[in-house]
Amino acid sequence: KMFGSQDDPDAALNPEALFNLPCKVEKLIIQGNTRTKKELIERELRAALEARTHESLALELGKARRSLEDLDVFRSSLFEVDVGSATSDSVNINLHVQEKGAHTVSTSTSVIGGEGCMELAWVCRNILGGAEQIRSTVLVGHEQSNALKLDLVKPYAFDSYNLHLRLFHIGQNFSKTSGYKDLREGLIISASQAQSPHLFSYELCKRSVEAASVTSKEPDADSSWKSALQHTFVDDSRDDPLLPSVGRFIRSAFEITGWFGGRYFWRHQLEGQLHVPVASRTSLSLFGTLGMLQALSGHKPFVSDRFFVGGPLSL
Where is the Bacterial surface antigen (D15) domain (predicted)? Predict the structure, then answer.
């Protein structure tokens, strides 16, 4: 009855015929959005509101639910489709959402480059009702590495593009393997579309490299500026990002520097994973990375830009 099967007796017995029945969304009812603007939710449901069959409606509602989850402001979302009152094929969509808290504080531990690290993060959500976020992260490693990051995220800042601004202060200690300490301070501005594998960024930062011992001497182990346009492509079909058993992961990062100062070069780094099940609860995993660096206009790349064991861009 919900999908109008009273007009087609065969549809009540045949699910495929039911999905092919025409429909037209008459009304959208949203409940639970105390801080989130209704216009933001309606934007994620735009394709579902234009569906003309029950099959396309079900598919678009599934996509809309994933898009709502990607906003990171809802703890849960539930769709209910009921019959409308305008015509025999009209339906109403009822959306029940549960918003996450305005503030979240979390801690975690990780191993980065063989160094144990502890991270403390604070997130402030939905500041203006448009799923905006402010994130602050502090990371401290047992080898004196440290990081301080401040992120501002604004969905749909430019039409369909999301804006991400990051200010960072990162210090990494590579003295055990390369004899250097690396310090970076600057900002990154990124733009991307939801569900798109492409990310476009501009990075402006100051890098300082300090020799950890008198035997570690580098002609340009001082400081330099970096101004780079970057493009990142990610293709991820893994079943689990932490412990994958099947699927692939490809990440391609390309950048060209020297736009507003600093040294001129282009660099491309490619990272790949392949996970293939070979037996019950057993899978074969292959990992690989490849880096390419080319200096331009006779400029020698700074030590922080080169690939070497223990460096910021270890392969």
Answer: 126-314
